[in-house]
Amino acid sequence: MASYAQQNKVTHAGVAVNNWAGDFECSVCRRKRLTASEFSKKMQERYKKDGNGTLKCKICVDKAAADERAAAAAKTKAAAPSATTDTATCAACKENLPVSAFTKPQLKKGPAKQRCQPCIAKAEADEQASGKAKKEETLKAAREAVAKAEKSGDAAAKLRANATLSALEGELVTGLRPLKIGRGRGRGRGRGRRGK
Length: 196
Prior knowledge:
This is Stc1 domain-containing protein. It comes from Pelagomonas calceolata. By secondary structure, the protein is mostly helical. It has two domains: about 5-60 and about 120-175, no CATH class; about 60-120, no CATH class. It has six helices and four strands. The strands form two sheets. A two-stranded antiparallel ribbon has the order 1-2. A two-stranded antiparallel ribbon has the order 3-4. α5 packs antiparallel against α6 (about 155-175). About 15% of the residues are buried.
């Protein structure tokens, strides 16, 4: 287990990680043995596609974004008053702000869709929080299903509930979604039974 997770009692979507760790490393902060849930889905997909090992954890990405926003705010304050006469309206907060409060890609979207940097940061934080809450709810439901199956005594229900819970916890560690395999042909459906 990574000492970072032990010292900070890290949990991922409600799963206490005091006895296991992943196999990923952040290229910025150099933390090792991180689980896949420490990285965004886009970062995981790029890593799987390229396999070059340059991953940035969510903490480092958020810190870099905050630093970039702070630098943009400082640049706006340092700009001369004549340079701030150009303004644009944010589609989210409806405020008329200096153009420097927007990124170039946002300004290209036009007045109906452009959002200022604080609104984008708030939307990203809300999305991350809702995603985490959804994962926690899914895990809670899976644990309740396991408890219900244990009480019922049905072996098939126990197996199904525990497999679902294991798949969800495994996805947090590896970042890989479980594959659902079809039922297949099964026994007794081969050539031997034809014509009988």
